[in-house]
Specification:
disordered N terminus; six-stranded antiparallel β-sheet; globular; alpha+beta
Length: about 625
């Protein structure tokens, strides 16, 4: 059936081979296009197919970009795919960040220097298991009823500004200008979300104006006819994505219904998978991967492996899946069971994939990579320094304080992440026990007269707590944003607490104190305090510890076993969330660039539990499952 479809000479809206644009000083012509007549790509006028891997620059320190890209090239890949994350580059409206680990242009230049072409995926929505699918949180603050991922002019105004900023930087790096970018994706798996062709056409026109014919526009959607139908666009090359355990021929037949001519493409082939807190660490067997990859390459398809290097969701960048009736936040590690580990080390999967690629593409003359040495820096004793609820904690770390009759969302108060403390007085007499009800997004620790009495949880569908409070006077609810939804219809994922009642009587007014906790430096010189081990009944506590690195720093892993839930900082860098009781992730990856020779410092923001030994270990092996 597939060979029959490949042979079809269907009149195509895309026409025949497009014109190639771009010449260098030697007269060489650059370009990337589709040869519809022969069902192939042309790179600089010559037949070409790519075997690519996904690597998101924002999930690894800049110092490691070249190392990881070089390892991808050594595996036989000739291209790299990366998303561009809007929220990284515009964290607040009109505040732009394109330097350091956000230096997109430098990443693209390094890719070209390492002999890799680039598939660029600028969104504006990217999913990627990132908070809010890579959209900046402040979109929810400017227009509360904004219609995301639609042709809503209020949304598209911000999109236009963002894409202008992206393309003015990457335009010189388009293939038609001699750069590495051969393809640019329009939106991201839109057929899984909606069917707004006006929106997709508007995005296409914005991008087309920027790139002309200097790179190829494309879409990717799941191997489902409805998804490809709603996600594909006139004059944009339509591709599909799928993993192992499928019928390859039938999956490509779905693509052929909407893209009757041109090369076959799987834009996201999954050699691993994502993991949520509380799950078993997800793995995909090597044999299944190599079998499916071999089948696709034997058909002449171009393939991008998602992920080839996964990396880490540092800070508060991990997202969540679910909707109104479910909520499942993702772990900090984005190792993804990928061919290259979170630390960039090659796995057996890496070498088996390389063997398959070698049957279809010439391998570069490069030495094969090996695992880098890791640091075992021993145990670190941690000392309590600040209680988040005490006056000093509020003074040093609170970024927002407001009072209103109703509890407000994080977004309406301009709090991008991580914690919001809601406080109200309890006035009047209540039955014992009383029933506290609150709609929480995502996790709420409930304190009565400064004493922890229970936890509300969106994941566990716990929205009610029975409380013994005949003489209680104060209620606190500390709400943790565990990551905004990154996929599906529930993108308007406002954080906070609402509809708070005690025996069905509404409570208020409310005092709200927001803690972003992006920077922990304010507590570096604070003296230690006394805190009992065990459950933190009186509120979250910040701990500090020091360790020494002799010689050049090496990657290491912070073992959080025995602690409760929180985030960890090393030398001011936020490693991300830890939650060893739920797992499966127990260690946090600490890249060598975050360390320094000599003295180093750890800070924890611990929400729930302190073990009696009060130590964490910096070890040379990860624990992810």
């Amino acid at each position: 059936m597939l060979s029959l479809l490949l042979a079809l000479t269907v009149a195509c809206a895309f026409g025949e081979t497009a014109d190639i644009h771009g010449n260098n000083s030697n007269g060489q012509t650059f370009g990337f296009e589709v040869d519809y007549q022969n069902n192939q790509f042309l790179l600089d006028g010559k037949p070409f197919r790519y075997v690519s891997g996904s690597f998101h620059y924002f999930r690894a320190p800049k110092r490691y970009w070249r190392d990881h890209l070089r390892k991808m090239r050594a595996a036989g890949l000739n291209a790299v795919s990366t998303y561009v994350e809007w929220s990284l580059h515009e964290p607040e409206e009109n505040e732009w960040n394109w330097s350091g680990d956000a230096d997109l242009v430098e990443f693209l230049n390094i890719a070209q220097e390492e002999d890799l072409l680039v598939l660029l995926r600028p969104g504006p929505y990217i999913c990627a298991e990132r908070d809010f699918g890579g959209l900046p949180y402040w979109l929810l603050t400017r227009v509360p009823d904004i219609r995301l991922r639609t042709n809503d002019p209020r949304y598209m105004n911000y999109v236009q500004i963002y894409l202008n900023e992206v393309f003015k930087r990457v335009e010189p790096l388009l293939r038609g200008n001699g750069g590495p970018i051969i393809m640019v994706q329009v939106e991201n798996e839109y057929g899984s979300y909606g069917c707004d062709y006006e929106y997709l056409n508007h995005l296409r026109d914005i991008m087309k104006e920027k790139i002309g014919t200097k790179a190829l526009l494309y879409t990717t959607d799941g191997n489902n006819a409805n998804m490809v139908s709603c996600g594909s666009i006139l004059d944009v090359y339509a591709t599909v994505d799928f993993g192992t355990g499928v019928n390859v021929t039938r999956s490509f037949e779905v693509m052929r219904r909407y893209q009757p001519r041109g090369p076959l493409v799987n834009s996201e082939f999954y050699p691993g998978w994502l993991t949520h807190w509380g799950e078993t660490f997800q793995r995909v067997k090597n044999t299944a991967i190599t079998k499916t990859l071999d089948e696709m390459l034997a058909l002449g398809a171009s393939v991008n492996m998602y992920m080839f290097y996964g990396g880490t969701n540092f800070g508060y960048t991990a997202g969540a899946n679910g909707g109104e009736d479910s909520y499942n936040p993702q772990i900090t590690s984005y190792d993804y069971d990928a061919p290259l580990t979170e630390a960039g080390d090659p796995t057996s999967k890496y070498f088996e994939i390389r063997n398959v690629i070698s049957k279809y593409l010439p391998l570069p003359n490069m030495s094969l990579p090996s695992a880098s040495p890791k640091g075992d820096y021993g145990s670190v004793r941690l000392f309590p320094v600040v209680n988040l609820f005490e006056p000093l904690g509020r003074h040093l770390l609170a970024s927002i304080v407001a009072e209103k009759s109703e509890p407000l969302t994080f977004e309406s108060l301009g709090l991008s992440n991580w914690l919001m403390l809601y406080e109200a007085d309890l006035i009047g007499n209540f039955a014992d026990p009383a029933n506290l009800h609150a709609n929480v997004r995502d996790r709420g620790m409930v304190y009565v007269d400064d004493y922890l009495v229970g936890t509300l949880s969106r994941t566990e569908n716990i929205y009610n707590i029975a409380m013994e409070i005949p003489y209680a006077r104060k209620l606190k609810i500390l709400v943790e944003n565990q990551g905004r939804l990154n996929f599906g219809k529930g993108l308007h994922d406002y954080k906070g607490v609402s509809n708070v009642t005690l025996n069905k009587v509404p409570l208020g007014p409310w005092k709200m104190t927001g803690y972003r906790l992006d920077d922990i430096g304010a507590v570096q010189t604070v003296n230690t305090i006394t805190v009992e081990s065990g459950i933190l009944r009186r509120g979250p506590v910040i701990f500090r510890g020091k360790f020494t690195v002799n010689g050049a720093p090496m990657d290491t892993y912070l073992n959080t076993d025995g602690w409760g839930k929180g985030v960890a900082f090393v030398n001011g860098r936020n490693l991300g969330r830890y939650w060893p009781l739920i797992g499966p992730q127990v260690t946090l990856y600490v890249p060598a660039p975050f360390l320094r020779t000599g003295d180093n410092e750890i800070f924890l923001v611990e929400l729930e539990y302190v073990p009696s030994n009060r130590t964490m270990k910096l070890q040379d092996t990860p624990i992810l499952g």
